[in-house]
Every structure is written in C-alpha cells, then in structure tokens.
Amino acid sequence: MAKGISSNRGGTLYLRGYQKQADQDVVNGGTIPLTSDDKLQTIDITASAGAATLANEPFGTSPADFTDRMVLAITCLDATNAVTIAVNDVQYGYVGNGNLVLTEGHQVQLIYNAARERFFELSRNF
C-alpha cells in the first residue's frame, strides 16, 4: 500500500491522518461548507440537483473556517452530475491548473494559504 493511503472503500481513497467530514450535496452557485478547522480533511461531494458550478468562493467567505495550510481532499461520488470549481483569483477563491470538473472518482487536494487568502491546487487524479 502506498505511503499515506489508509484504505480504499467503495473506490474512494481515505488518506491516513485526514479527518472525514460530512458528505456534501452541492448546488449550482453554492459552496462546500467546512465544518471543521482540522488541518487535513477529506470531503465527499455529490450534486443530486444537477450539474453544479460552485460559487467564486467555493468554501464560503468566513475566514474563521479556514486554517493556514489546511489541506482539503475532495472526492466526487456523483456518477451523473459534474461539479465544477472554477479558477477565481479572488479572496477565498481557488487558484490552480485550470477549472476542476469533478465527476465520479475524481479527487483533488487543495491547500489554503492565509497570507494570500486563496485555496491552491496541490494535486488531482484526473
């Protein structure tokens, strides 16, 4: 087993040391609410109401919810509807290697930089 991988349940990789947060069903123009300030978090998402492009600030606008160097591992579990996190170089926005269009099994890891007030892409599996 690769270093850092704890298990593979239902096709989703759960990473050692990451705290599993509540699954989120996102909507167009919505956000993925963060319910913890854990440094390492994994969040499974779906979009049961249809394909969704998240807000310019995909995790909301409350800095109290963000911890410097917080890493989010986001996995899409929706086999029907894509979830898009668009590049938006704005306060609390996402900056990375192009828009993220997540479909079933796609995972992305983002890191929050408090000095820049942005979420930056660390890696993706697609």
Give the domain tally.
Answer: 1
Helix content: under 10%
Secondary-structure-derived class: mainly beta
By DSSP (H or I, 4+ residues per run), the number of helices equals: 0
Q: Would you mind describing this structure in some detail?
A:
This protein is an all-beta fold and 126 residues long. It has one domain (13-124). The protein has no helices and twelve strands. The chain has strands at 5-9, 12-15, 19-20, 24-25, 40-46, 52-53, 71-76, 83-85, 93-95, 100-102, 107-113, 118-124. The strands form three sheets. Strands 3, 4, 5, 7, 9, 11 and 12 form a seven-stranded mixed β-sheet that branches. Strand 11 (107-113) and strand 12 (118-124) form a beta hairpin. It is globular, with a radius of gyration of 13 Å. Residues 1-8 have low confidence and may be disordered.
List the helices and strands and how they pair.
Layout: E1 5-9, E2 12-15, E3 19-20, E4 24-25, E5 40-46, E6 52-53, E7 71-76, E8 83-85, E9 93-95, E10 100-102, E11 107-113, E12 118-124
Parallel strand pairs: 3-5, 4-5, 5-7, 6-8, 9-12
Antiparallel strand pairs: 1-2, 7-11, 8-10, 11-12
What descriptive keywords fit this protein?
mainly beta; three-stranded mixed β-sheet; seven-stranded mixed β-sheet
Question: What is this entry, summarized?
Answer:
The chain has strands spanning 5-9, 12-15, 19-20, 24-25, 40-46, 52-53, 71-76, 83-85, 93-95, 100-102, 107-113, 118-124. The protein is mainly β and 126 residues long. The protein has one domain (13-124).
